[in-house]
Amino acid sequence: MKRALGPALKTLALRIPALAIPALAIPALFFAGSMRAADAPLVVTSIKPVHSLVSAIMQGVGEPQLIVDGAASPHTYNLKPSNARALQDAKVIFWVGPGLEAFLEKPLQALGSDASVVELDNAPGLTKLPFREGGAFEPHDDGDAAEHEAASADGHDHAADDHDHGAFDTHLWLDPMNAKAMATMITTTLVAADPANALTYQANAKALDDKLTALDKELAATVAPVKAKPFIVFHDAYQYFEHRYGIRVAGSITVSPETIPGAERVSEIHRKVGELGATCVFAEPQFEPRLIDVVIEGTRAKSGVLDPEAATLKAGPDLYFTLMRGIADSMKACLSSA
C-alpha cells in the first residue's frame, strides 16, 4: 500500500520532472537529514565556551545540549531537573573539570555513568597556569566576595582558608592554543563515539583549527598597541589571554557584584589603583554600574567590562570567536582612551 505524500512534498513532487529523480529517491531526499539528526549521539556540554567548540565540530551531525545557559555562572550554578535528565541520557559529556564546574562532580558520578565523560582540562598540549594570589592579586573568588569583605574587617584572609582551587587556573579556553588542544580531544572523543560521522567531525575540526589560527593572529594585532598599559580586574580570570599576548595586568581586586563596599574598603581599593598605576579597571557583566563608579571614583582609571564566560552571548558555534574578540576589543577601547 502506497503512503500518501504530505501537502508540501506533494506540491514539490509535481514540480519536478518525473525522469529527473526516481520516485523511490524522493523520501530519501527529504528524510535523510532528519534520520541523521536522530542518529546523532546525545552530547551534553557544561559551559558556553565548551559548547561553542563542540557545536563547531558537530555541525551537520547534531547540536550538543548546554547546561549552564544564559547569564548563569558555573561557579554558583544549581543543576535543573532537565539537566539531570540530559546527563542521564547522554552518550558523551564534555566539561572543563571539577576545578571550574564543581556542581557537576557528584551528578556526573550518579547520572553520567553510561556516558563517555570527558574532562577537557586533561587535554594533551594544554598550557596550565597556577592561580595568582598574594601581592597585587587578591584571593581568587568564585562568586563569594563577601568573604573578602569580612577578611578586610579583621585582617585575616578567610577566603584563602575556605577555597581550595587546585593546582591551576581553569579558565583555559582564554588562550586559543588551549582551545585547539581541547578541540582535538573533543574530535577524538566524537569520532570514537560516532564513527559513522567521523569524516564530518574531522573536516569540521580542521576548519575550526584554521579559524583559531587566524583568530590568534587577529587578537595579537588588536591588543598590540595597548598591551604595555597596566590594568586591574575584578575577577582574575584572564591570565591565559594575558600570557598569550604579553598583556600587562597590574593586579586584581575582590568585590561582591551586588554589594557596594564600605568606606574603608573603598579607600583601600583607591589606594591600590593609584599605587599600581592602573589605566583601566575591568568588571564583568554581573557587576552593577554604580559599584564600578564607586571603585574608580577619585582615581585616574577608566572602567571597562569583560565577559570571560560569555554570560551575555548567545550559545552556538560562533560564540567562542565573539567572546575572544569582545575581550580584545574591550581591552583596546578602555586602555586606548586612558
UniProtKB/TrEMBL annotation:
<keyword id="KW-0813">Transport</keyword>
<comment type="similarity">
    <text>Belongs to the bacterial solute-binding protein 9 family.</text>
</comment>
<dbReference type="InterPro" id="IPR006127">
    <property type="entry name" value="ZnuA-like"/>
</dbReference>
<feature type="region of interest" description="Disordered">
    <location>
        <begin position="129"/>
        <end position="162"/>
    </location>
</feature>
<keyword id="KW-0732">Signal</keyword>
<keyword id="KW-0479">Metal-binding</keyword>
<keyword id="KW-0406">Ion transport</keyword>
<feature type="compositionally biased region" description="Basic and acidic residues">
    <location>
        <begin position="138"/>
        <end position="162"/>
    </location>
</feature>
<dbReference type="GO" id="GO:0046872">
    <property type="term" value="F:metal ion binding"/>
</dbReference>
<keyword id="KW-0864">Zinc transport</keyword>
<dbReference type="InterPro" id="IPR035520">
    <property type="entry name" value="ZnuA"/>
</dbReference>
<dbReference type="Pfam" id="PF01297">
    <property type="entry name" value="ZnuA"/>
</dbReference>
<dbReference type="InterPro" id="IPR050492">
    <property type="entry name" value="Bact_metal-bind_prot9"/>
</dbReference>
<keyword id="KW-1015">Disulfide bond</keyword>
<dbReference type="GO" id="GO:0006829">
    <property type="term" value="P:zinc ion transport"/>
</dbReference>
<dbReference type="GO" id="GO:0042597">
    <property type="term" value="C:periplasmic space"/>
</dbReference>
<keyword id="KW-0862">Zinc</keyword>
<protein>
    <recommendedName>
        <fullName>High-affinity zinc uptake system protein ZnuA</fullName>
    </recommendedName>
</protein>
<keyword id="KW-0574">Periplasm</keyword>
